[in-house]
Design brief:
Elements lengths: L3 E9 L7 E8 L2 E6 L11 E3 L6 E4 L1 E2 L6 H5 L10 E2 L5 E2 L5 H12 L8 E6 L11 H5 L7 E5 L4 E4 L1 H7 L10 E3 L5 E6 H11 L4 H4 L3 H13 L2 E9 L3 H12 L6 E7 L5 H12 L10 E5 L29 H13 L3 E6 L2 H17 L8 E4 L5 H10 L2 E4 L2 H14 L2 H4 L5 H6 L4 E3 L10 H10 L16 H7 L2 H6 L17 E4 L16 E6 L2 E4 L2
Parallel strand pairs: 1-4, 1-5, 6-14, 9-10, 14-15, 15-16, 16-17, 17-18, 18-19, 19-20
Antiparallel strand pairs: 1-2, 2-3, 5-21, 7-8, 10-11, 11-13, 12-13, 21-22, 22-23
Helix pairs in contact: 4-5, 10-11, 11-12, 13-16, 16-17
Length: 542
């Protein structure tokens, strides 16, 4: 087949040796050449494709921290505070008070048969300061049928009395993460993995493993395609054998428009078994499916009050958060996987979690020196300047949750962190000045999968109420675009294959109606993605 040359009004390549071009040549799913039509003339007989002649082409966006759970949860009703669009284009309204949530849940119950539990997701208690959602609120909806409301941060849930009885948690309030009323009875709120897994086990439901099902992956890819994403992560995957086989079959299909990089959940396995599992899966990688990443969960979520913060702790005096495993065990896991030559992606929301993991990485490097390990701290929403300097010295990457500024910045300013610490929420500019490899992400389904919105957050640093937090940490639009392309690819050790438009890399592109550098900042996030190209195959957005 003849090479195809796509023309565009402008091509932003993310290649520092050739930042802009007007044409890109593609053969066998890879970039054959980039430049002007004249400079590509020596490629010989090519097919000129001018369908994007008035568009702007960028490398396909790389989402360095999201979850295939985004493709699972839309099978259940959304119950979040902010309006949100589902994969079919329907916008679900935001539920801004408990009464409205209860009405919504009753409406969803009416659609189910009598034997089916109701599972909803996206609820965020931090936006309801007057009181916490508890079992009594859900019992008022239905006290006989199990009801589970998964919180937006995915670290917590609230269940009704029927679910507590069914799971046995009614009589086991001493399990860590089971929140109680003053009289010692479970109040229905469950925090972090140990308590929540009791619910999932009772329902025989592994949402994270379901992220590997074909229908889920197809939905996930479709959501990504709509927003120009060509490389997606699944940054918490149990890598079950059926799941791995499903990912292989699905990603092999030409009509599934994504490359996928799943990260094995380290706490699912002993270190010995986990290392053996991820190394075995790595041998089954392909052009569209890249195994080898390992995800380690340390603390929880700041807005959920389960993150671990250093002194003085939470601004409003709430008690410190939770570890998902003992600190000694977390350190041992870092050592073992580092020694095995694997790359860790480590969830660290609070600065105490950051400190623990920097200590662990530093001691691992002292014991087993490794060049270019690219261990990546994920989220690192609160990280001090001293910790940034340590991260730079240790060669650690930081993938920051920029969307967090918009969705929870107001809450952190007034309740969880206060003014000064909010000036260094997601301190991207400081990290960049220190030469730390950085990226930015959405953590879908925690926030919507939309990289241009993530870039806007990194530039505007604006909260939902319009306040700007940490203007000295803002990036330029051009710099922010690298966070969602080449820089994100670097944190995944995929920058030799994706993230920029260079000869030999995969022909993955996001086709935009406008140049992000030219539009007013308030329109950056709403630029239309006209098409997505994966391996040279065009997927038009209707």
């Amino acid at each position: 087949m003849k090479p195809r040359i796509f023309s565009a009004r402008r091509i932003l390549t993310m290649n520092p040796s050739l930042p802009e071009a007007t044409h890109v040549a593609v053969r066998d799913g890879r970039i054959l050449g980039v430049g002007s039509l004249e400079t590509l003339a020596d490629l010989g007989d090519c097919e000129l494709d001018e369908r994007f002649a008035d568009k702007v082409i960028l490398p396909g966006f790389v989402e360095g921290h999201s979850h295939a759970l985004e493709g699972v949860l839309w099978e259940y009703p959304y119950a979040g505070f902010f309006p949100r669009q589902d994969p079919d284009g329907h916008t679900w309204p935001g539920l801004t008070d408990i009464d409205r949530l209860q009405r919504h849940l009753r409406e969803q119950l009416a659609k189910l048969d009598d034997a089916t539990p109701l599972i909803a997701w996206g609820f965020d208690p931090i936006y309801f300061p007057d009181r916490r959602l508890d079992r009594n609120d859900l019992d008022a909806v239905d006290d006989r049928r199990p009801i589970v409301v998964i919180h937006a941060n995915l670290h917590m849930m609230t269940v009704n009395s029927a679910m507590l009885r069914l799971s046995g948690l009614e009589s086991h309030a001493d399990i860590e993460g089971v929140v109680t009323f003053d009289d010692g009875r479970p109040n229905g709120e469950l925090r972090e993995m140990a308590a929540m897994f009791a619910i999932f086990d009772t329902l025989d439901l592994d949402l994270f493993d379901r992220g590997s099902e074909a229908a889920t992956l197809e939905r996930y890819a479709r959501i990504g395609q709509r927003h120009g994403v060509t490389t997606l992560t699944d940054l918490y995957n149990p890598l079950s054998e059926t799941g791995v086989e499903s990912m292989q079959r699905t990603c092999r299909r030409d009509d599934v428009p994504m490359r996928l990089a799943p990260a094995m959940s380290a706490l699912t396995y002993t270190p010995e078994d986990g290392i053996e599992r991820v190394l075995g899966c790595r041998e089954r990688s392909s052009d569209k499916l890249q195994f080898g990443l390992v995800k380690l969960m340390t603390d929880g979520s700041i807005q959920g009050y389960t993150a671990r913060l250093m002194w003085p702790g939470y601004h409003d005096g709430s008690p410190n958060g939770m570890w998902n495993a003992e600190p000694e065990r977390l350190t041992e896991i870092v050592h073992r996987y580092h020694q095995a030559g694997l790359q860790l992606h480590i969830h660290t929301n609070g600065d105490e979690a950051v400190e623990l993991m920097l200590d662990a990485i530093e001691s691992a490097l002292e014991l087993w020196p490794r060049a270019d390990h690219r261990h990546t701290l994920q989220h690192c929403q609160i990280i001090s300047h001293a910790q940034l300097k340590r991260a730079a010295r240790l060669g650690v990457c930081l993938n920051m949750f920029a969307n967090h500024l918009y969705y929870w910045g107001d809450i952190h300013r007034t309740r969880t962190l206060g003014f000064e610490r909010c000036q260094r929420l997601e301190p991207l500019a400081s990290a960049d000045r220190l030469g730390i490899p950085i990226a930015a992400h959405c953590d879908a389904p925690v926030t919507p999968l939309a990289p241009l919105f993530t870039a806007w957050c990194a530039v505007a640093r604006q909260t939902a109420n319009g306040e700007v937090l940490g203007p000295d940490e803002a990036l330029s639009v051009e710099r922010a675009l690298r966070l969602i392309t080449l820089d994100a690819a670097y944190t995944l050790k995929l920058d030799d294959r994706v993230g920029s438009l260079e000869v030999g890399k995969f022909a993955d592109m996001a086709v935009l109606d406008e140049d992000p550098r030219d539009v007013p900042l308030d329109r950056l996030a709403s630029i239309r993605v006209a098409a997505t190209v994966v391996g040279g195959r065009v997927f038009d957005n209707v």
